[in-house]
Amino acid sequence: MRGREATNPVIRPRGERRDAWGGQGAFRVAPLRGETTFSLVCRLAGRYGLEESALRSQWQWRGSRPRYPGGGARADAEMVLNVAGRQLLADLCRVDKAVLARALPSWEHEESGSEGESSGAPTALWRVGGAVVGPVALGCRLCAARRSGSPVGWVRYAARWERVCVRHGRWLVDADAGQKLELLDLRAMPDVVVAQRRWSGVARRAVRGGVDPEAVFALAYAVVARWWEQALHWEREKVWPSESRGYDAGKKINGRKRHLLVVDTRGVPLMVMVTPADLHDSAAAKEILFRLRLTHPEITIVWADSAYAGKLVTWAKRHLNLTIKPVSRPKDAAGFVIVPRRWVVERSLSRVMNARRHARDYERLVQHSEALITWAAVTLMTRRLTRRSRVPPATSRLQLAPSV
User: Fold this and answer.
1) Could you tell me if 171 and 186 are in contact, meaning their C-beta atoms sit under 8 angstroms apart?
2) Residue 118 and residue 32 share a domain
């Protein structure tokens, strides 16, 4: 139209000076929290109505773009900029560099070879996002629409414990997996979203206690995902899976051990765990103590035999706030001796062995063995609850006083 200037953005050629075109972009594109630098460039190109390759031509590139073995471009590709390259991106976004530094984790990351020539040309270096900052995930489109007004795809740095979008109930998958799914819908599983909300408090308590949140998450992941990781190999297992069997040279046991049975002071089982026989008691105790702490937070003192002494006592006190008191056998004892506290567990084991199914290890999986031990304990408890008492109930000997 006559009398009206065209408002289409103008991108300067690579060799043209910045002062020839004004040094500022036509649109303001703000970065998203935790976003990769290359994801911001792709969104910026979409805002200008350009292909991302056309906008990439504004930088001088070093290296080749990361690709999958099949030849496809990786979604977790990242660009490391030099000083002039960061200034150029800030001008195109019309965002202050301090804001970009707070939002983009890889903004100030520099490597040898990322700096330009002596002329100070904007330079970018291709890298994989996981090797620059950390794990990379696909961002939530609804969060991008809430912030920028458009549900565009974007990529962000996200630790393993930050993959759930609690606002929209979505599980964000890895960006380097090369899979078709962009997210998992969690609206039918609200417990996962609640766990993500609670995790922030767990992480803060871990930091106050001097523990890395990554170590806490790794321990929780090992406990929760243990059965699922074993389920991935069920199709390849035989009648006696080799990964679930072992040999204990001390007790002369070949196969599995039902050596971790947590009971209360009355002998009622609280936790059951079956492991290969070659796994030491103290090594497997960390997992079952962690389960015990999650399901029974009221328990603070645990009595155990001498196999659980040593570093496990310090570990349980520091990470789980559990006090382990080892109960040793008397030194001058010979033969069978009733050891205080330990006889409660031995009595529970003998009661479980009354079930003929536990006379031998007939089960294919350790999960089956644990379930049958729990079944035997439930049977014992129901018999106690339903048996007739020899002594009449106390209420039958009481008489109600007449009302006044």
Assistant:
1) yes
2) yes
